[in-house]
Amino acid sequence: MTPPIAVGLSAVIVAADGRAPYALATQHADGAAGLPHGRFDPKGHRTFELGLREWVRAQTGFEPGYVEQLYTFGDLGRELPQAELGDAPSGARLISVGYLGLTPERTDISAFDAVWRDWYRHFPWEDHRAGRPALIDQTLAPALRAWAARGGRQDATRLARLQLAFGLDGQPWVEERTLERYELLYEAGLATEANRERDRKPFPLPVSALGEPMISDHRRILATAIGRLRGKIKYRPVVFELMPERFTLLELQKVVESLLGLSLHKQNFRRSLDRSGLLVGLGQTTQATGGRPAELFRFRREALREGNVSGVQTPRS
Amino acid sequence: MTPPIAVGLSAVIVAADGRAPYALATQHADGAAGLPHGRFDPKGHRTFELGLREWVRAQTGFEPGYVEQLYTFGDLGRELPQAELGDAPSGARLISVGYLGLTPERTDISAFDAVWRDWYRHFPWEDHRAGRPALIDQTLAPALRAWAARGGRQDATRLARLQLAFGLDGQPWVEERTLERYELLYEAGLATEANRERDRKPFPLPVSALGEPMISDHRRILATAIGRLRGKIKYRPVVFELMPERFTLLELQKVVESLLGLSLHKQNFRRSLDRSGLLVGLGQTTQATGGRPAELFRFRREALREGNVSGVQTPRS
DNA sequence: CCACTTTATGCTCAAGATGAGCACAAGCAG
DNA sequence: CTGCTTGTGCTCATCTTGAGCATAAAGTGG
């Protein structure tokens, strides 16, 4: 007799302002954070996406706009612990389909047990806007190298993976590799979730370095979302799904920077936008910025219909 | 009582030579082609990927190398018809996880009911190596435009989608949009599969224009694979998974061209490879090419460990 | 009003990448 | 030897990119 299969739908709903990118999160009893999620209903849900929207709405009162599928996780041992299964038949095999959603404003969701959380709380090593975080080389790298050294024959492979993922030993930091980095930490037992599931003691490193865990495999899904979004803004004009109707170039840059976790070269950033034809100047200015008033721009949605589908360039500073 | 869920695993296993790209396909009773596939076993399969490998092996005697997940389809109405379900509980809701696999050689699979099929038999409009196929503008476009015109209020949207997808009215042809094109044909009732499922008569256009259908949603999965691969070879060195150990630059170019369905500028193609550092010249030459002997090259696998992970440039001719 | 800070924006310059194509090399077939 | 076929080197104009200087236009404290 094969066990039944249950499909979980989880959503990473992203919003951003100049300071940080946020993911919509639910608060759980023990203080743990989770993503809005629920079970796919084979009877009631015609498509995954419709099911997902329903769950997000129910749990956060929020109606997501742009949505795309991320990945489907099915490996044994990393699914939802039994207790959180809700109405799933016990003993069911759990599969997890992750989605990414984008929204221009952090809607008020206070009526629900939901909050907008700065995603770097879960991934402190991912934010390089103020330079490479010290915790990578001071805390994570030593622990990871020790793990690699324990690998015996896999040694070289592990070390090479670390170098590429975390930009060690002269390798450049590649911001899209968020999932690879998280998976390495997980494999090395440095993700709290890994120890929870293997029934081991937590690793003796502070949360400030390891990041806050999330329930189930939600941090993995969040990592997937971050990596995907970081890659995608470069070749599709998706950042604009996160922007208000009118914005200044610096506001746009700050949002891009917060997503990438990098700081960009200002003049070149605006030059590339100029040439992209994605924006229209509104002729108005705002003085809210502190210095010289900045011109307001609007995303030319028509550009999408014109086949002008490149994203924004990201000239590192 | 909610119906049970069954998960189908399907694989697009790709090989290529100078003439065409091939997908590993199984032959079905009525002559219809399908992808190697089978049900995910919640008990026996620790991960999707392991399950998939098992099914491919069983159905084709073939052991895939490089494998990556493509997409998970779950919409009602496009899954496997009941008859092909095999051992699934009847009335089950079917979910389909597609995978892409790459292999350097077309292994002998004649002992099984499997063949390597030129994927353009299923997508004749996708091969632009000898110029834009006449069937697009002569046969498909008129039928698609008629469908768009029937759209009432969606008219403009439909037309814009067509223009972008098929490069109509001055829009450029973008080779990665394989799935978009197939989905448009499906929506317009021009994919044989659509009529099969809606119980309608087939569209009065020849297979030579509409492409050969496949069982279940396999053509959709194949389209996803083609689009993904076409995009990926540009930013990851994945073509080399399709090449033999030693090859000439023209052989490589022909493979890339066959995948993209485009012809490339020869001198610039080789220049970009020169600079990429992905290849090593072996100092040997082969005369198998017909003209002047060509130098043989090998992929520098070490490049992967060096973070040199760009793909190959594709300078159109 | 002035010096000074802050943000906005224009512009230059060198280096590199890209698109297009000419020219010559080195086999083979007659 | 001639002509055909593929392979390979190289040029040249044009764009793109990375880096940074310089000026504009607000606000602030004297």
> What order do the helices and strands of chain A follow?
EEEEHEEEHHHHHHEHHEEH
Task: Name the shape of chain A in a single word.
Answer: globular
What can be said about the biggest beta sheet of chain A?
7 strands, mixed
**Tally of separate helices of chain A:** 10
Largest interface: A-B, 31 and 31 residues
Low-confidence stretches of chain A: none
Global Rg of chain A: 21 Å
Average pLDDT rating of chain A:
90
Total beta strands of chain A: 10
Q: What class would the helix/strand composition of chain A place it in?
A: alpha+beta
Report helical residue fraction of chain A: 25-40%
What is the end-to-end distance of chain A?
A: 59 Å
Multimeric state of these chains?
homodimer
Percent of residues in β-strands of chain A: 15-25%
Task: Report on this structure.
- The structure is a homodimer of 317-residue chains.
- The model of chain A has no long low-confidence stretch (mean pLDDT 90).
- In chain A, a hairpin with a 5-residue loop joins strand 2 and strand 3 (33-34).
- With 317 residues, chain A is an alpha+beta fold.
- Helices cover 34% and strands 20% of the residues of chain A.
- The interface between A and B is medium-sized, with 31 and 31 residues.
- Chain A binds a DNA duplex (30 and 30 nucleotides) through helix 9.
